[in-house]
Amino acid sequence: MDPATFKDPNLTVQDVLVLDTLLADVDVRKRTNGQVPANMDSDGASNAISKMKALNDPGDPEFEPTLFVTWDLRDLVRLYPWLDKWVLQPYRECARKLVRVETDVVMITHLLLYFTTSVPSAILLFSHFSWIHGVLHWIMQTYYVGTYTLMMHQHIHMGGILKSRYQWFNTIFPYITDPLMGHTWNSYYYHHVKHHHVEGNGPDDLSSTIRYQRDELRDFLCYVGRFFFFIWLELPLYFLRKGNMHCASRAGFWEISNMATIFILWNYVNWRATLFCLVLPLAQLRIGLMIGNWGQHALVDDIDPDSDFRSSITLIDVADRYANEHALVFRNIDYMMITVRLLRKDYKYLAKCLVPIGNQIGMDEDEIAKMLQAKTRRFTEADIRRKFPQKSQVQR
């Protein structure tokens, strides 16, 4: 598979619209030697944006809620009309009445999945442990954790998955499911929302990549090890340095409480079940989060590293401003594999995965590879003081 030409058939309708629009722009610019024709088809991009808005607007006839991450609803309706009539339509209408945002029906599906598989499986392991069940449970949780973490990202940003009248469930369910997936209680909220989004990979971000050479294995291992072993202490201390005693006390309390619970279950209840239900998911997720975060924030713009556009790696629905700001758009690769390719210094492969926008369109593969490599350079403290003049910097 050539990542420069392969088009994943499993992309969502929205992803296809974005990708086709960007590739059409690339084709036009290449045929005109990089010049933007005065009559260039802006209607294509406008139509794609209108289509995406319609697909996500509950008031639009084309609105299509996502029920499953594996299949598009339109394909299920086409292949199994009886299933749509007797199962999917009633379920969809019921779920739309429960969720806070009607595009989040898929999260009801996943909540049902976790509470009918993960939770009963964990209970059974603690009551009647077997090694085969333990291994299978861990494999199942490994499969679930990616979509669960995305669901929790939406949950903490939107103030809950379900409508406000079901706020009691929004409040309670993470205390049950978070530890089973490897999240410690409330740590995702305090680290991601109250800390990472505030700092944005800047000098005070505890998970910042800017002080590391981002294509070196030794730097990567130091980065992962720091988070894995010390985030329980560093996050409360970060909030103390910022004068936020409220977040400092709560972040520390929930992290220590979670670890204490694991200690008690290991020593006084069932260490084998605790290993597969709590310890392995925790270790695995913390490593996985840092692998993904490294890939997401490894390619930092040298001119304006504080820019959310210039240092972004994303697939986007409005290309114009991102193109002007020299953002990076990839396809046929995820953050995990970006990390792997960087550590292998396989910039040619990354160049093939890049969807060129703006000035990148005129670059050949070698030029793109060199551009990407330049974005992995470690920032010195002098660089940081110069490039982040408005940031409050903590002396390390």
Automatic annotation (TrEMBL):
UniProt keyword Transmembrane, yes or no: yes
Record key words, sorted: Membrane, Transmembrane, Transmembrane helix
Keyword Metal-binding: no
Sequence ranges assigned to domain Fatty acid desaturase in this UniProt record: 130-307
Residue intervals passing through the bilayer: 105-125, 220-240, 260-283
InterPro entries assigned: FA_desaturase_dom (IPR005804)
Pfam family, one: FA_desaturase
GO biological process, one term: lipid metabolic process
UniProt name for this protein: Fatty acid desaturase domain-containing protein
Organism: Petromyces alliaceus
Lineage of the species this protein comes from: Eukaryota, Fungi, Dikarya, Ascomycota, Pezizomycotina
